[in-house]
Design goal:
Blueprint (H helix, E strand, L loop, with lengths): L1 E2 L5 E2 L18 E15 L8 H5 L9 E8 L2 E8 L1 H5 L5 E12 L2 E5 L5 E4 L27
């Protein structure tokens, strides 16, 4: 820690620890990865009947934009769920850094996501070839409850 000119203690930021796609496991969070976007497919969001509280608001709500993007590095690939502004960044061929990413489980398979506490930033093109034959989102997981006796 260091003291700034105003006398406030500043905490030194930790260097990000980059991990590879094949190190991702279900239910984990706080990952930092550098990945290439292989493909991006927009998902049509079906809006059910709006809630009463949203009808009271004067301005119309914008529908959420969602795209499922296949991202990966030299160890494998995983499906990344891009939301709203992230959809514009996730163009096929782009290299991005995902900060504070988490693993969401959807129908037994892993999906990578970055919520409002993380960042998706474009970086210079990476010099690795994406290993597309190791898709971690195709592995199906089952929740097992362990009963202790």
């Amino acid at each position: 820690t260091a003291t700034t000119a105003t006398g406030v203690k500043a905490v030194a930021k930790r260097k990000p620890v980059f991990i590879k796609v094949d190190q991702l496991t279900p239910g984990t969070q706080g990952h930092t990865l550098a990945v290439k976007v292989v493909s991006s497919k927009p998902v049509k969001v079906t809006n059910s009947k709006p809630a009463r509280s949203s009808m009271i608001l004067s301005r119309p709500l914008q529908p959420a934009r969602i795209a499922e993007c296949l991202v990966g590095d030299e160890t494998g690939t995983v499906v990344f769920t891009a939301r709203n502004d992230q959809v514009d960044i996730m163009k096929p061929g782009a290299t991005v850094i995902l900060r504070n990413a988490k693993i969401d489980m959807f129908k037994g398979s892993m999906r990578l996501a970055v919520d409002k506490w993380g960042r998706v930033e474009v970086t210079e093109p990476a010099n690795f070839e994406v290993k597309e034959d190791n898709n971690l989102s195709l592995v199906e997981y089952e929740l097992v409850n362990v009963v202790e006796e």
